[in-house]
Fold this sequence. Notes:
By secondary structure, the chain is an alpha/beta fold. The protein contains 12 helices and 10 strands. The chain folds into 2 domains: 6-20 and 123-346, Rossmann fold (3-Layer(aba) Sandwich); 23-118, no CATH class. It has helices at residues 12-16, 26-34, 44-55, 71-84, 100-118, 125-135, 152-160, 216-224, 252-266, 283-296, 313-326, 340-346; strands at 6-10, 142-146, 165-167, 189-194, 197-204, 209-212, 237-240, 270-274, 301-307, 333-339. It is globular, with a radius of gyration of 20 Å.
Amino acid sequence: MAAVEDVIFLGAGASASEGAPVQKDLFREFFRTDRTRRSHPAGIGRLERFFRDFFGIDVRGASSDTMFPSFEETLGILEIAMDRGESFKGYSVASGTPDVQTIREDLIFLIALVLNRTLQSPRGHHRELVNRLDAEGRMLRTAFISLNYDILIDNALTEMHPDIDIDYGVEFTNYHRERDWKVPRKDRSVFLLKIHGSLNWLYCPTCISLTLTPHEREMTRLVEHAVPCEQCGMPMTPIITPPTYLKGLTNYFLHQIMHASSEVLRNARRIIFCGYSFPDADLLVRYMLKRLELNYDPRPDILVLNSYEGKRQTSKVMEEQRYKRFFRHKEQVRYLDMTFSDFCRNGVG
Ligand SMILES: [Zn+2]
């Protein structure tokens, strides 16, 4: 494998540029556009009740003004309950009502459905990026760390470059079974490290294995029915963790991906943050970067491009400060007034 020179971080802004709803709008987007459609995840009735009980929202009457909680805070609350072995009135296995685990899975399927639907025809920035990197001969010297669950960059890589393999930093059970997916060839592979999980991965909590669902048709199948594990027959679940929820790291596979991310970052000459606002709460990423700085002192150039039309000057200033405040070598941080689509098309030189 060619040595990685550039590590590109893909944040929520990169997906938003393709038409994905931002985190805080995910639920509103689903209930606003999906009520009249026929294909619902099986748990829609449970979720209606959940939003009423937990947040006082009548989803059937939801409008663009309805204030939904964010995906992250909703999932975060449920994850903590599960960790602590606690539950909520009306939501426990013991009383025969939908339990916390079931609601959590319903929410994840809902997110998968929204992203799948809103990203059916992306504007094509990720493809432009892959094309440009290829034309510049940088493809095999670039690694991606994605903070997003969607498969925009995955699709861009596989569709445009069948001769290139994606190395997700973990092994999938179906590497050896499915015709389309093989073990990534070391000299032909590009790292795509998705540290919060991905919609096209199914986790089997019973045999602790990961299955890749290669195509969109598979994704649609999985959001509508629980897919059984081919090894043990027990139901699998998408592997998605909210970014601020540190416990996600305890998952065996996400842990491996974090490790692989630290490894590619060690040798990077440039780290390019795209559409990532570097929120204070995103501790996992900060921890990884701080360990990198302290333990290896690699001093890469740090480029930030996170502009979009209508972005306020004050938020740009605060964002730049957040980046500069964090990194030890301030002079290495370059905050560029550039959009993700500019970067995809033209690069930073
Ligand atoms: Zn299994």
